[in-house]
TrEMBL record:
<dbReference type="Pfam" id="PF13378">
    <property type="entry name" value="MR_MLE_C"/>
</dbReference>
<dbReference type="Pfam" id="PF02746">
    <property type="entry name" value="MR_MLE_N"/>
</dbReference>
<dbReference type="InterPro" id="IPR018110">
    <property type="entry name" value="Mandel_Rmase/mucon_lact_enz_CS"/>
</dbReference>
<keyword id="KW-0479">Metal-binding</keyword>
<dbReference type="InterPro" id="IPR046945">
    <property type="entry name" value="RHMD-like"/>
</dbReference>
<dbReference type="InterPro" id="IPR036849">
    <property type="entry name" value="Enolase-like_C_sf"/>
</dbReference>
<dbReference type="InterPro" id="IPR013342">
    <property type="entry name" value="Mandelate_racemase_C"/>
</dbReference>
<feature type="domain" description="Mandelate racemase/muconate lactonizing enzyme C-terminal">
    <location>
        <begin position="147"/>
        <end position="244"/>
    </location>
</feature>
<keyword id="KW-0460">Magnesium</keyword>
<dbReference type="InterPro" id="IPR029017">
    <property type="entry name" value="Enolase-like_N"/>
</dbReference>
<protein>
    <submittedName>
        <fullName>Mandelate racemase</fullName>
    </submittedName>
</protein>
<dbReference type="InterPro" id="IPR013341">
    <property type="entry name" value="Mandelate_racemase_N_dom"/>
</dbReference>
<dbReference type="InterPro" id="IPR029065">
    <property type="entry name" value="Enolase_C-like"/>
</dbReference>
Amino acid sequence: MAKITAVHLYLVNLPPKTVRTDAIQSFVTQETPIVRIVCDDGSEGIGYSYTIGTGGSSVIALIKDHLAPQLPGRDPACVEAIWRDLLFHTHATAVGAITSLALAAIDTALWDWRARRADLPLWQLLGGAQPQVPVYTTEGGWLQLPQSALVEQTLAARAAGFKGAKLKVGKPHLAEDVRRLHAVREAVGDDFELMVDANQAFSVSEAMRRADVLAGVNLAWLEEPLPADNVAGHTQLAAHSRIPIAVGESLYSPGQFADYIQHKACSIIQVDVARVGGITPWLKVAHMAACHNLAVCPHFLMELHVSLCSAVPNAAWLEYIPQLDDVTARPIRITDGMATPPDEAGLGIAWDWPVLEKRSLFRHTLS
């Protein structure tokens, strides 16, 4: 039985390669807390989470001061027990974004260790449900782009083989959103999927109004139309809208997803492995969604979600937003719009450690 003997912490900033602006915010930089656990037999596991520009130092502080000290001496195979113990150790700050992101960095490292120990790719260890997943891109759909660029970049995405594209909505007037989306739809045709994302910008009444008009664009889903804590509003909207309603990137526990599912407040589950607290709770949400015949289309972190999507049968889409290219030796494999999970044991992310060491803003070792 292996025992954890050391925990190494890093914080790396990864600025986006393109301007990313939506209805309420901009993606400033990916603050990336990285956890590397080492065991007494020399085995190790590496995990991470992220922010989009604020809170990274708080995540690191929570891990360093409160969570990492609980790990030495633990058996890393007992992932569920460790996750539960860490959750209750920080019970006063859960459920919350900082706690979930901190838990995720550790939990993904433990699952990496477990898959490496089993000599299996993560997606096979967790179920091996499907060997590839369709990919849609968000990189050409940001709200600040003029209509001409929106059309041009969506056409380019289709030419590159993507199966769909997500476009941001939330312009001050509905008419502008409508013009932009109709222009894109006319350019790409009806057999290319278009998704839209409002990033929690609307009231219930405005969301219902916009959903009525946008239904004519033949959209795959309307994402985060309302503030994430408004389950009642989403329930009302989901019953009203002809467009499927997608939520999940701003939910931080399986219980919050359970509330949405029980109230029939959405039909697309966008559970984010970092924001929900790691692979352990991600699997609970994905399987809960499967039991209710709901699709999982996770938010961001494609380098990790490609394995999780391949692990479960109800994952319908992988979101393409490349962010780890500068600190990994190879990108994820995408051919003809389909992503294939790694063959390597573990998470299968080929970290470039010399680059990570050089770019680390913070390092700490607990042993």
